[in-house]
Design a protein that fits this description.
The structure holds 2 protein chains of 2 kinds. Chain A is an alpha/beta fold. Chain A has 11 helices and 13 strands. The model of chain A has no long low-confidence stretch (mean pLDDT 89). The longest helix of chain B is centred in the middle third of the chain and has 33 residues, at 101-133. Chain B is an all-alpha fold. Classes of the chains: A alpha/beta, B mainly alpha.
Amino acid sequence: MIEANGLTKRYGAQLAVQDVSFRCEPGTVTGFLGPNGAGKSTTLRMICGLTIPTAGEASVLGADYRRMANPARHVGVMLDASAQHDGRRGRETVRLCAETIGVDPGRVEEMITLVGLDRAAAKRRVGKYSLGMRQRLGLAQVLLGEPDVLILDEPANGLDPAGINWMRELLRYFADRGGTVLLSSHLLNEVEALADQLLLINRGRLIASGSKEELLAGTGTLVRSPEPERLEGALSAAGIATTASEKGLVADADPEAVGRAAHAGGVPLSELRPAEGAGLEQLFLSLTSNDAEGD
Amino acid sequence: MSGALTDRAERPSLLRLGRVEARKMVDTRAAMWLLILTALSALAAVVVGAFFEDANRDFGELFVDAMLAASVLMPIVPILLVTGEWSQRAALGTFTLVPARDRVMAAKLLALLALLIAFTVICLALSALAAAIGGDGLDISTADAAQAVLFDLLALLFGFGLAAILMNSPAAIVLNFVAPIVVAGIAAISTGIEEAVAWVDPSTWSTLTDANHPDWDKIATTTLAWVVVPIALGLARLRRRDVS
């Protein structure tokens, strides 16, 4: 379990994170979403005791991270896969971690195999690793201590589609066995398939949080027709607002109302369904589009 | 539940963390070469002293030569050990595994102490061997030898302090070599200034390796200024800083 209570971080005049509160329950995967520079990493660093909050507090498994005797035995943390010593070999990096937290050196090989690094890769220096390999090496260290909680910042960065799929399965398996996962991403589709709970952060503030279903509900219906102009006309005649998306029209009504409106207008439909993916994407975009500045 | 998580019995011992830090001193190419070069400079000093100097030197003198030669590069070891965390961003992992930041620094000091012992043994072996083959006998003064060890300890701590406060490899390495020169430059302005500066001049430490008696008072004040204060300030900075 992870709990954040009013976490706030101020750097000079800038509020990097403002009054962020949430809970991550065992058995769930929580996706922490937001554009780059929104405050995701700062929030995660505050949870892990690497950044001291200006206000608020956080706990993991009911304890202040900084007061844990041997945190890696309870919490697997990977905040930046690229932050590893370039001159050290892959296997040695994992060994150092095992030595620090006092786990059996035998687990080192086991974890290296689990994350899919072969013998040749484990022997290479980390400086020669791709970002995807660093993510795998990071996960090997994170899993060493058999934690109950995982906190991962942008773990899918640099992974190829097969790698992302592999990581999803790994995290799903971890959560299904009662683990708590909190992972951040600036890419919606990375998290969409995996997360049960979503936290959306923008410009340091939590702007939405809840289960994926909750956040998706009310995001409308995706509807397509070979005659899009007539469809738009029929829907607006029925008083249903629409927005165009790549995949078709997203109507601000449930599928039944949209179907009836199309039927009343005599418009043929080629597709009619709850706008799940597109909806979340739009939610993400609309919640973050007020942000005119680049980060 | 939180009671179990914060149970001190589960905490990695300082000895364990010290072993980890000792490992970091040898497990990268840069670190390994640095140690090899440091050992080679000790070897060179012993060889020159025993075989090429007109005045043959005994075991004790050769040992002091060796420790003095090793002390040139030795401060770079703690500098890389401490600043490597930041330049390579490994600190993110280190302090995630061990949130008690002071303990990490204590472990690094412990590892450096082990390094000093290892170098002392190496220098003893090299100088004994050289003295037996080409030197002027196996006499050694315990006091002189101990002072040479203390000199190297101060060199290590000097580097450690600079690294702790600067947290930046190039800056710490440059300051390690330049600071004594700058202090000497300031001292050269006038004799009055020279007398005052002598209390905080790192070159005062080298009186430990002279045949003359070391100036203990000035050694103490210099150590306070260049070792104790930087380490204390560095730890205070480390406790508060963002690790990212």
